[in-house]
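Q: I'm building a small set of examples for a reading group on sequence design. Run inverse folding on the following structure and report the sequence directly after it, with nothing in between.
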């Protein structure tokens, strides 16, 4: 086991952002151990950009809001940095710019089954439909690969992350469904929304995790 695995105590982080029509963007972070049991959960107050900000930020708004602002606020609150941070949204992958943990995009479950099979398969690359979105949103292409029974992707700029964590994670994550924790986060955010104010704050760098 490497120093990275020991220092992070085999913790896996899951980060996603929900777009609520009434409140704005709500972020949630869930930390699990290798058995899939929760260790900690954090969520943000709603964040809503103004029309002027939408115009000025253009295509860079989503990765800034979801990854650097919301994601950054969440990862700064965690007690133990995860050995791997998973997200299910391309824009949220930009959290890698403000955190030390490797970040992977977890691809849909229907894509992971065939990719877990033999090497050299001529199957259609399931990340192909995401490439234009990733290029426009992050300015980078995605590189996909199997991890346990899942299919994940990293951005080309951080391909080195794969070499750093893959060996340690393969055995630990073999029986863990990386898609399922995002459902837990969304359900928890639904509960949290009931207690939030009706007025969503404007986009500021001071937005903190709840």
């Amino acid at each position: 086991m490497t120093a990275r695995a020991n220092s992070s105590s085999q913790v896996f982080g899951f980060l996603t952002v929900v777009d609520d029509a009434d409140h704005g963007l709500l972020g949630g972070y869930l930390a699990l151990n290798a058995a899939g049991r929760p260790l900690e959960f954090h969520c943000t107050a709603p964040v809503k950009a103004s029309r002027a900000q939408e115009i000025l930020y253009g295509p860079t708004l989503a990765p800034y809001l979801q990854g650097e602002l919301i994601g950054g606020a969440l990862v700064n609150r965690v007690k133990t940095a995860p050995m791997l941070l998973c997200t299910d949204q391309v824009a949220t992958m930009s959290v890698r710019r403000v955190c030390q943990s490797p970040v992977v995009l977890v691809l849909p479950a229907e894509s992971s089954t065939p990719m877990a099979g033999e090497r050299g398969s001529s199957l259609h690359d399931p990340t192909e439909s995401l490439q234009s979105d990733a290029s426009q949103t992050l300015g980078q292409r995605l590189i996909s690969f199997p991890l346990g029974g899942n299919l994940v992707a990293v951005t080309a700029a951080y391909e080195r992350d794969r070499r750093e964590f893959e060996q340690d994670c393969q055995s630990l994550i073999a029986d863990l469904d990386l898609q399922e924790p995002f459902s837990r986060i969304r359900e928890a955010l639904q509960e949290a929304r009931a207690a939030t104010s009706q007025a969503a704050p404007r986009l500021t760098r001071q937005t903190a995790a709840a």
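Residues 1-7, 111-124, 204-210 have pLDDT under 50 and may be disordered.
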